[in-house]
Automatic annotation (TrEMBL), chains A, B:
Pfam family, one: TetR_C_3
PANTHER family for this protein: HTH-TYPE TRANSCRIPTIONAL REGULATOR RUTR (PTHR30055:SF196)
Gene3D superfamilies the UniProt entry points to: Homeodomain-like, Tetracycline Repressor, domain 2
Annotated DNA-binding residue span(s): 36-55
Protein's name in the database: TetR family transcriptional regulator
Species of provenance: Mesorhizobium atlanticum
Organism superkingdom: Bacteria
Amino acid sequence: MEGSAPRRTRIQQEKRELILEAALEVFSANGFRGSTIDQIAEAAGMSKPNLLYYFRRKEDIHETLMQRLLDTWLAPLRELDDIGDPLTELRSYIRRKLEMARDFPRESRLFANEILQGAPRIKPMLEGELKTLVDEKAAVIKGWMRAGKIARTDPWHLIFSIWATTQHYADFDVQVRAVLGADRGGDGRFEDAARFLEQLFLDGLKPKG
Amino acid sequence: MEGSAPRRTRIQQEKRELILEAALEVFSANGFRGSTIDQIAEAAGMSKPNLLYYFRRKEDIHETLMQRLLDTWLAPLRELDDIGDPLTELRSYIRRKLEMARDFPRESRLFANEILQGAPRIKPMLEGELKTLVDEKAAVIKGWMRAGKIARTDPWHLIFSIWATTQHYADFDVQVRAVLGADRGGDGRFEDAARFLEQLFLDGLKPKG
DNA sequence: CTAACGTTTGTCCAACCGGTCAAAATTTGC
DNA sequence: GCAAATTTTGACCGGTTGGACAAACGTTAG
């Protein structure tokens, strides 16, 4: 069985974490092909052969990183529950996603890089696990629509639009900062974004009355 | 002066176009560092040294491509005018942007790649030309808000959200198709997206009445 | 026809990159 | 303290890549 995790010493645990942290930094900034093992090794403070002692191949690092990423990345959507008030649920989903873009921009960019290149390594997971999860949540949302709790619309595209608008602040950060300029591009931009998105998703742009 | 375009023969014009078309295909699929001159040369149906006769360096191809891209890419925003009805103007801006994502996905991905990597080659343009244009259009939108034609909100983030939601269908195409599945991921997805986005931006998610 | 000019190709090179390997240094179990 | 196991390193290798170059080929104007 491959499933059984190999026994690891304390040093192996620590060094592997160190490498993954360094690799996240490098991969998210340069993409997979744009990153070299030497860069990662240097960022992790070790020599290239030393790094290759812990991860046999460059791709193994990327794969491990990607597997871990996906769990945390989809956590907010998993939390979307049928319990509370629908509009409140959606609002807090948007808020959580935006917080992830703010707190884990490297993870967001790593993911974006992978998708942009056609998701060669995670396509099966997108068509399997991810699709299942989204379909499930889309059904929940549809229930809310039938109950008249939120406006009728396409739940899948609704989810896409939440992903797009929130991740934009991580993936396109350089552009957002450049356009907002020095004064408005500071730390406050995420609060501005949160306020804007809340209004957009709840009320749209039509003037009141 | 660098500004004066070098004299070019008819063959040079044609071959350069051929190379740029091939490079767009390759760069948008693999990123800058992930693409090789050989790949581009093969896609353009010529030998590597021959390609290098028309573009001295790999970076020159990318730069030329990027410069051309930006004009066409920002055209929809430039068209956003103060003349017509504000809501109609915004709606048709969204529609135009979505059509660009549908008709020019390679250009969208090329741009996304560049921004994701920190926009090393076009940052000055983002902070200059792009910021100026967005600020100008944000002022127009603010005028509409003051006149009570659309709801009051942050015009910059509104523009970001339009960019994010529309380009998502080009940049994250693989994911969108995977999640929608074979039946709904076909050609109709852009029309579904258009309908959804129109509703989102105009009315939001609150149920009527 | 031919000289000048523009285009194409084969060959080559130096740098880089992913990965190997054996030997040295270090840590760990007893 | 010592042997076994683990970790680290320097040297090396084969393949790839961006790019140079000169020679060959084609085209065109006189």
